[in-house]
Design goal:
This protein is of the alpha/beta class. The protein has helices at 35-44, 62-73, 106-114, 121-136, 151-154, 157-162, 176-183, 237-248, 278-287, 300-305, 307-316, 336-342, 355-368, 386-398, 430-454, 460-483, 488-507; strands spanning 4-8, 78-80, 93-97, 141-145, 166-170, 191-194, 211-213, 215-216, 233-234, 256-259, 293-294, 325-332, 371-379, 405-410. A six-stranded parallel β-sheet has the order 2-1-3-4-5-6, sandwiched between helices. It has a three-stranded parallel β-sheet with strand order 7-10-11.
Length: 516
């Protein structure tokens, strides 16, 4: 048996056949859907990871692979396992990676709030996993870390309730060796905080969705953003290509996903706001490995500032009307007043007062190059007034012509605003309901077209999530505004209607893409 097992719950080690957007299904409240749909999600989406004869996963999320690589280099006996393997494999120390352990991250808190507070899949499976480990291994040390570790600061009682010995926040590279060495002796602090890494760790084995980190942190200074508090740095190209090659050689990896807060600015120094174009060189080299490349995040102002870089980037990826891609982008708000209050640097190299025009230009540049924005905005920023919300509604309407998805999320206190009040369902006045209706009318319209254009390139399950999910959201908010609530009977009707529309769309000829 190994000394150390690294693992994660089913919503983190999720079905590798999905696109990375499939991970958002973990945010859905379990009790908000009819049982037949809950059963379907659990059977088709939250599948065990493929495993070899030793119980080791063949594919794992990026953070587990980084910790694994660090520990293997230091000579530790470590195994990355799926949660379903833990009945037969035991260890002295368990390292658990989590993204949203208690369902209070922005995406989940939005869905939970709108469902009346029902427990989401991510919380259900995380707590279930920790309880299982503690019950079967009462003497072992349990260490929890990952992007969701901050939630133990919000709910500190959970650590003791679940029997977790140590929670790790910050970056793992500088503290991993001593932390796990002491853990094997049974001596760990209740909380460990890792400083900025001198060198970002790579991987030794394949990652879920072929994810490769190309950089870390952000220098734009948005007050509500946790990555903005991390050291801004890029990895050398040769190290990125080495990680990409490991993924390209795996039969479980369909594409290489490049991870950064603003991929377009790869290679830029802090304060250099216009992309230098080095990202084009990087993707051109990774492309030689023979697998498609999937983008992750970009800033709209970066796209607006460097249309030629975006054009060359799209050309390097061979993007066309039939072979499109997408960036996750932060639209955030249409209010320049809130931009000046909380995210003045987001519009750079332009002024915050110019944000609506910068955002539209960013959408235009991306769409013209067959890269569709998957945008989020924040509902309930501190100090937000009705006029601010109306300006956001107006901006969303002005973006109607651009193929994109726009998802409004509840404000969650993070970054430098961690002491502020969360936005909750009770704050949903009529103007916010109108915002949600506007966003999901836009998203449902383009979501249906995306699944049609995607044809066989998108897995059927991914098509279903985008098509049915966006339409159900639109139905929900329209009914919420018109009736004040959504009954179970009406939910059943919406589910039948939207699934019927989805099945029909699989039979009819695909719609033509007319933008770009």
């Amino acid at each position: 048996m190994p000394d150390i097992i690294l693992t994660a719950d089913k919503t983190v080690l999720i079905n590798h056949r999905l696109t990375c957007l499939g991970g958002f299904t973990a945010c859905i409240p379990r009790g908000s859907l009819p049982q037949v749909f809950t059963n379907y999600l659990e059977k088709k989406i939250f599948l065990p990871a493929p495993t070899n004869g030793k119980g080791e996963v063949q594919i794992a999320n990026l953070l587990l692979r980084k910790v694994e690589a660090i520990l293997l280099e230091k000579g530790f006996d470590v195994l990355v396992c799926d949660s379903t393997q833990l009945d037969s494999i035991h260890a002295r120390v368990y390292g658990v990676s989590t993204i949203d352990p208690f369902g209070i991250g922005p995406a989940t808190s939005t869905m939970v709030g709108l469902s009346g507070g029902k427990e989401p899949f991510n919380q259900y499976y995380f707590e279930r996993l920790i309880k299982k480990i503690r019950e079967k291994n009462p003497e072992s040390v349990i260490i929890v870390g990952g992007p969701g570790a901050w939630q133990f600061d919000v709910l500190p009682e959970k650590q003791k309730q679940l029997g977790i010995d140590c929670v790790v926040e910050g970056e793992i590279e500088e503290i991993a060796e001593d932390l796990f060495k002491n853990a094997l002796k049974g001596d760990v602090p209740k909380k460990a905080i890792g400083p900025p890494a001198r060198k970002i760790a790579g991987i030794k084995k394949p990652t879920l969705w072929g994810m490769v980190q190309i950089g870390r942190g952000c220098d734009r200074g948005c007050q509500f953003c946790d990555p903005g508090m991390r050291h801004y740095t890029w990895r050398p190209m040769e190290e990125i290509i080495k990680d990409a090659r490991i993924n390209a050689e795996s039969k479980y990896v369909n594409s290489i996903t490049l991870l950064a807060e603003d991929e377009l600015r790869y290679g830029n120094k802090p304060g250099e706001w216009t992309p230098c174009g080095k990202i084009v060189e990087l993707v051109s080299e990774i492309k030689k490995l023979g697998k498609p490349i999937s983008p992750s995040h970009a800033n709209l102002s970066s796209a607006a500032a460097a249309p030629e870089v975006v054009k060359e980037y799209a050309k390097a990826l061979d993007l066309t009307k039939k072979n499109f891609s997408a960036f996750q982008v932060g639209l955030e708000t249409g209010s320049v007043r809130l931009m000046n209050m909380w995210m003045r640097g987001k519009a750079l190299p332009w002024k915050a007062d110019e944000w609506p025009d910068v955002a539209k230009k960013g959408f235009e540049v991306l769409v013209k190059n067959h890269i569709f924005p998957l945008a989020t905005l924040v509902a309930g920023l501190p100090g937000e007034k009705e006029d601010d919300v109306q300006k956001t509604i107006d901006l969303v309407k002005e973006l109607k012509e651009y193929p994109s998805l726009i998802m409004p999320l509840f404000f969650v206190p993070l970054g430098r605003l961690k002491d502020m009040e969360s936005f909750i369902e009770q704050n949903l006045t009529d103007i916010y309901k109108e915002l949600y209706i506007t966003c999901f009318e836009h998203t449902a319209c383009w979501g249906r077209k995306f699944t049609s254009w995607g044809g066989s390139t998108l897995p059927l399950l991914a098509q279903w999530v985008v098509h049915v999910g966006t339409m159900l959201a639109f139905d929900y908010f329209k009914a919420l505004k018109e009736r004040g609530r959504v009954s179970h009977l009406r939910w059943g009707f919406y589910l039948l209607k939207e699934n019927g529309a989805f099945l029909t769309s699989r039979i009819l000829p695909p719609q033509k893409l007319t933008v770009g």
